[in-house]
């Protein structure tokens, strides 16, 4: 007589244990990066913090360094910029090496090489890490090739027309700006637009929603008038 009571109790225990499992659907804590795995969260969150100026000194250093690089490339050739950068780095390291050698000779100390801690660092790339990088790159390359084939072979007429209009607009942009100028503008936008959007998110989302609705209605009208598109939707 005791066995049926245990059997009736077991479903309740299993249901309570199964009910406790879905408490963390994403497998992450509330403070973790949303919709990101454990491996990609670190790098993605680092980029997010960088462009949102979470650490002002770090973001300022990266922003200033890359902007100076791009401005230098706009004024000089790539070979000249790389050569000047290498010369500047060598000037700093050689000067510091000579300075430390003189100090050690005067003080008669045996501190050794000033860069010994950095020289002993293992910077070799393992075969496993190399294959991981190659596999990740191949996934992106294959995805890009599929997209290119789909656009140029007109799998979707609307998407191909969007690309054609975008390229036509880019001809006017290219007539005004060169590649380096576009990179400078892109960097200024990357380091300014996210923080502005974060501050005025509500107002921006309102106007973006209006523009998106109007664009969607225009695209639907175009799709309705294009031959083959309406038939494809009906199927």
Automatic annotation (TrEMBL):
Membrane-spanning intervals of the chain: 61-90, 147-169, 175-197
Keyword list, A-Z: Endoplasmic reticulum, Membrane, Transmembrane, Transmembrane helix
Domain of life per record: Eukaryota
A Pfam family matched in the record: Reticulon
Biased composition (Low complexity): 1-24
Cellular component per GO, a single term: neuron projection
Membrane topology summary: Multi-pass membrane protein
GO BP term (any one): brain development
Coiled-coil parts of chain: none
Subcellular locations according to the entry: Endoplasmic reticulum membrane
Chain spans, region Disordered: 1-31
Residues of the Reticulon domain: 47-235
Protein known as: Reticulon
Underlying gene: LOC111149423
